[in-house]
Write a structure and sequence with these properties.
297 residues; 0% strand
């Protein structure tokens, strides 16, 4: 019964995916009108790479997965941080899911050739589990890598704020302070800020506007706050040196608190094996006495 249900569900899912890919649903009228009347959005600052083996193998599955609403808004921002196109991510998910579904067939065929057929239930159940793991694993990896990049970006942003503050204290203007400070740093975070400032110069827009866009694309609120503070100096003539110094200090204090919290969490995790060993030792001591008591009854 379970095998029949699994085979029927797999056949139905495959036929539905084939029908969606061959005859995609027509978009709603309100969506078409909104797309036609909405002004074009500026090109994203973060560059996306859509090359790779997964983008070629799993390309037919991209349209059905987009129909399901994948990826979500939060995962889309994570992929933008990683510089990975959504089509590449969806192709990788589909490729790993199909590979996990077909992987148990290889040992099953080898055992069948040796005369040790394990039955059809094992490859089906194992294939479904591996396919689910392969479909979910790219999402988990993208979230983890994006979180690490955001933490590194906040560390670099605190150093960038100090550089901008020092440059402003030396008598430079806002635009010069932003441009000169970013040339000093190295790494991925400074590269993204440099790319945003270059975009502002080429498109003849204000640097704080592109920095705000970069903060929204990276989902880093601290960068958007920096852009709002700098815009006051650029438009209202406000003095922002003290504000930038306070923001840099607050950002470092927040990062220190997060580092202490992570260290305490790691310390607690390190105590778990010791507690497990201690419980095992207690069970080893108590087992003979408990056995004697039960046998005495």
């Amino acid at each position: 019964m379970i095998t029949s249900i699994a085979l029927g569900a797999g056949l139905g899912t495959g036929l539905w995916a084939l029908a969606v890919s061959l005859f995609p649903p027509r978009p709603a009228l309100d969506a078409v009108l909104a797309r036609a009347t909405t002004p074009p959005t500026p090109a994203p600052i973060l560059a996306a790479d859509d090359t790779g083996w997964a983008a070629r193998l799993g390309l037919p599955a991209v349209a059905p997965l987009r129909t399901l609403g994948l990826p979500g808004p939060h995962l889309t921002r994570d992929l933008a941080v990683l510089g990975r196109a959504t089509s590449t991510h969806l192709s990788e998910k589909a490729t790993l899911a199909v590979a996990g579904l077909l992987l148990p067939a290889l040992p099953t065929a080898a055992l069948a050739a040796a005369g040790l057929a394990p039955g059809i239930e094992f490859p089906i159940i194992a294939g479904l589990l591996l396919a689910t793991a392969g479909f979910v694993w790219p999402d988990l990896r993208a979230r983890s890598e994006a979180a690490k990049l955001r933490v590194g970006f906040r560390h670099a942003l605190s150093a960038y704020l100090d550089l901008v503050w020092i440059t402003l204290a030396g008598g430079a203007g806002v635009d010069s302070a932003l441009g000169d400070s970013v040339t000093i740093g190295r790494g991925w975070a400074f590269g993204q800020i440099r790319r945003a400032l270059d975009t502002a110069r080429l498109t003849r827009t204000t640097p704080w506007a592109t920095l705000r866009r970069l903060g929204e694309e990276l989902d880093v609120t601290e960068l958007a706050e920096l852009a709002a503070t700098v815009s006051l100096a650029g438009t209202e003539g406000a003095k922002v040196r003290t504000s930038l110094a306070a923001k840099a200090q607050a950002l470092r204090a927040h990062q220190t608190a997060e580092a202490e919290g992570d260290a305490q969490a790691a310390t607690e995790r390190m105590s778990l094996p010791v507690m497990a060993l201690f419980l095992g030792f207690l069970a080893f001591i108590a087992y003979p006495a408990l056995t004697q008591v039960l046998h005495g009854l």
